[in-house]
Amino acid sequence: MINWKFWIGQALCYSLFLAFIGYFSNSPTYQRFPDNQAMIKLSLRHAGKILGECRERSEAELAQLPPNMRISKICPRERSPLQLDLLINDEMIYSKELAPRGIHGDSLSSVYFRLPVNSGEINLKVRMKDHIDQKNYPYQLEKTLQLSPAQVLVIDFDANEGSFILL
Amino acid sequence: MIKIFERLTLSLFQFLESTFNQIFGERWNPWYQLGALSFYFFWIVTVTGLYLFIFFDTSISGAFESMEAVTHNQWFAGGIMRSLHRYASDAMAITVTLHLLREFSLGRFRGARWFSWFSGVPLLWLLFASAIGGYWLVWDQLAQYISEITTEWFGWLPFIGDSLARNFVSNQTLSDRFFSLLVFMHIAIPLFLLVGMFIHIKRIKLAKTSPPKGLARGTLAGLILLSLIKPAVSMDKADMSVSVTAIDLDWVYMNVYPLLDSWGYGAVWALLVGLSGFLAVLPWLSPDKKKAMRPAEVNPDNCNGCSWCYQDCPFEAITMIDHEYKKGQMQAQVDPDLCTACGICAGSCPSATPFRHVDELISGIEIPDFSIEHLRQETHKKLDSLSGNQRLVVFGCDHALDTDAVADEQTAVITLPCAGLLPPSFADYISRQPEVDGVMVSGCCSEDCYFRKGTEWTEQRFHRERLPHLRTKAGKQKVKLFWAGPREEEKLHTALTKYRAELAFHKAEETEGAGFD
Ligand code: HEM
Ligand code: SF4
Ligand code: SF4
Questions:
Q1: Selected residues 1-60 of chain B with any CB under 8 Å from a CB in chain A
Q2: Do B245 and A34 touch (CB under 8 A)?
Q3: Can you give the CATH number for the domain in which B41 is found?
Q4: Which of B226, B243, B260 is the last residue of a domain?
Q5: Measured between alpha carbons, how far is B383 from B380 in angstroms, rounded to an integer?
Q6: Which of B245, B338, B416, B495 has its CA 20 to 30 Å from the CA of residue B183?
Q7: Which of A14, A31, A110 is closest, CB to CB, to B246?
């Protein structure tokens, strides 16, 4: 005789387990942001200018070096940090000095920064210095634009052109 | 604190297990098969994954469309394969988590058993990394969300940096090269997981890596049914210029992802690394307070090199080496670091027989805290206080049901560290004592011996399928085996009542028979 209690009990246990998996494998929906929210990503890499000038070594300095390393001109490798500011509707949202990477501070500076904003019209200002001695910001971009809901606006920098780009 | 949680989870598991024993029977009870089921799901995921890989386009521009084609153009094959791939992965995460909790509740992470516990912890990371990497390859909006937040999360680590996140910042920066790396990782990480799984069971003799057929079939049939009812599908195609505001998360694998948004990356790192670290050091954080039993010792004078103990040790703690002084003979050697002091080896040793004519009974191998001589003395002490005409000796086990509850003037109870410690010859010997009418050996239910093999080996030894055998006919008639889980004391009562009825019947038959002669 078939033991119904046995089989129905098992079917019930299997169903519970599978229903759990079936449901939680893609539900409930996770509402990460309000649907009308847009996003700005500030993401760029740029090498700051080299700090300091090349100079000649003095005779005394040269004499101290091993013969195969006696090169008279020395150039520093350390780069300047970048100063990067982002203003939205004239409010300073981001302002940071970005140190160069590498143990000698001789590599690129980079930033990746994500910011949720309300969709609609915004005024965007972004500016950057790549040498600490610069008085003004040699790189600037100002734009007023319409952000649609969920739009992702990326602010990048084209080092070859020397200008900010919006993607 | 740890001990309280341990006791709580243990009683929860014991409740579930005894309930499921009534529904599935001991053999198919899924709670006894969590490790084996995890292996089984891994194989389902592997086979279905290989099938999907045939049709998968590994470029970032073609990945999404290729998955759509598999899902919809061949729903009857690729579609089911995809659903099985997803659902078996989810099932694996669930069984692994329950397996961890169950091993914890049983305290199987302490002492010599630390290795399986410790080596289980990295498996969690590999498992989650495998699954999340898989979702990433589909390149739908879920994948887009994963790519954004995972790269930012790892980029938070100072030695990785934000260049990782830049790969996924806009449609223009996406690169096939990085995507190929992801495809490669989705193959490499599961391979590491597999290697890790084998290391995990390395110290375990004959680890249960496949579930019993009935359970395996039922589970597979269920997964296929689920795949038909609710096929796994993608969200819309990823588009980096539009952020995903609402996401159909797989909560089994991505349950911490919402925390990344609300707590921040550092906090989630702290949580996960902290939790893993805590699990990893748990064997030493919570050692056994009751002084743990000392490991087994070999007595070379009584070891003849038969290697039966070597074959029976469930934890690979015994090796056979050249005998200390008997030329050309072998002897057993115990690695104390691996020994759990279960005593199963003593139950297998031919020199543990109490029929030997020696003053002090010393087995070739035994655990010092529960020697065969100690067992003999204990049993004799208990026999002296037996009375009545249906006198039974019950050998119980520390980890199974509470046998002490059945002790009375007609029933002597002796509790062993594991039923496997009892040599068949010993049960035989006791059953022949004039003050004993019958012997019952009881322990953990067959699928779930605390020391893994105690029940199975005892069963085989007493049924003459494994050495040493239960030798005599008298022994066979007078010794009964009985297995049940904790909380199943009721079953033991019933079994004892039935046994007594049988004994009464035999006695009546004998006296009647005697009357005819
Ligand atoms: C991929 C994931 C895992 C798989 C496939 C797996 C599988 C297994 C298997 C097959 C066994 C042997 C069962 C037996 O024959 O008695 C086992 C034992 C064990 N596992 Fe796992 N396991 C996994 C993860 C974990 C994790 C995460 C932990 C805990 C941190 C863990 C802790 C243990 C312990 C303590 C034992 C018992 C060893 C003993 O009896 O001394 N496992 N596992
Ligand atoms: S007591 Fe014996 S059987 Fe048990 S682990 Fe130690 S050596 Fe192995
Ligand atoms: S079972 Fe006993 S006699 Fe045989 S090898 Fe082991 S210790 Fe020696």
A1: 20, 22-25, 28, 30
A2: yes
A3: 1.20.810.10
A4: B243
A5: 5
A6: B245
A7: A31
Residue B305, classed as helix, strand or coil, is coil
B344 lines ligand 2 (CB under 6 A): yes
Q: Could you tell me if residue B295 is inside a domain? A: no
| C-alpha distance from A18 to closest chain B C-alpha (Å) | 7
Q: Is the pLDDT of residue B109 over 60?
A: yes
DSSP assignment of B326-364, as one string? STT-EEEEE-TTT-----HHHHH-GGG-TTS--SS---S
**Cα-to-chain-centroid distance, residue B409:** 38
Chain A residue with minimal CA distance to B216? Answer: A14
Q: What residues pair up with B372 in beta bridges, in sequence order?
A: none
In a domain, B76, yes or no: yes
Boundary of a domain, candidates B224, B243, B262: B243
Report chain B residues whose CB lies below 8 A from the CB of A33: 243, 245
Output A74 or A46, whichever has higher pLDDT: A46
Q: Which residues of B fall within a CB distance of 8 Å from A111?
A: 162
Q: What is the pLDDT at residue A1? A: 47
Looking at this predicted complex, what is its ipTM? 0.91
Which member of A9, A29, A167 has the closest CB to residue B170?
Answer: A167
The arithmetic mean of pLDDT across residues B379-398, rounded, is 92
Amino acid in position B18: S
For ligand 3, atom 1, the nearest C-alpha belongs to B349
What is the SS3 assignment for B387? coil
Q: How far is B177 from chain A (nearest CA, A)?
A: 20
Q: Which domain holds residue B507?
A: 355-516
Q: Cβ(A42)–Cβ(A86) under 8 Å?
A: yes
Nearest ligand to the CA atom of B318: 2
| Residue B445 in contact with ligand 2 by CB distance below 6 A | no
Count: domains in chain B: 2
Sort B1 into a burial class: Cβ within 10 Å, 0-12 / 13-18 / 19+: exposed
Q: pLDDT by residue (tens digit) across B428-460?
A: 999 999 989 999 999 998 888 999 999 999 999
Assigned domain for B390 exists:
yes
What are the residue ranges spanned by the domains of chain A?
37-50+79-166
The second-level CATH assignment, the architecture, of A37-50+79-166 is Sandwich (2.60)
